[in-house]
Amino acid sequence: MDKLLLAVKLIITALVLILFVQNIAVVEVRFLTWSLSLPLALLLVAIYLLGMISGKSLMGLIRRLRQGGSESSRR
């Protein structure tokens, strides 16, 4: 099982490296009045990380709201 997990991790790492190598072209990103030029691979990683952070925050908020609702019904 450990060898299978290691193989999966190596395959994912190889795919990420291929993604980086093939997407090094610089793109321009515009948001409201801001403008930024950066490699496409870096933009993809930044968007992925922002999605992970916002997803975790949203799940934490939902968990707190559910716990708060169950506590008020017990009283």
Describe the structure.
The chain has helices at residues 2-22, 40-74; strands at residues 26-31, 34-39. It is an alpha+beta fold and 75 residues long. The chain has one domain (2-74). A two-stranded antiparallel sheet has the order 1-2. The model has no long low-confidence stretch (mean pLDDT 86).
Low-confidence stretches: none
Cross-sheet strand order for the largest sheet: 1-2
Please, how many helices? 2
Major β-sheet annotation: 2 strands, antiparallel
Q: Please give the domain count.
A: 1
Choose one word for the global shape. Answer: flat
Structural class: alpha+beta
Tell me the strand percentage band.
15-25%
Q: What is the distance, rounded to the nearest whole angstrom, between the alpha carbons of the first and last residues?
A: 48 Å
Structure summarized in a few sentences:
With 75 residues, the protein is α+β, with helices and mostly antiparallel strands. It has helices spanning 2-22, 40-74, and strands at residues 26-31, 34-39.
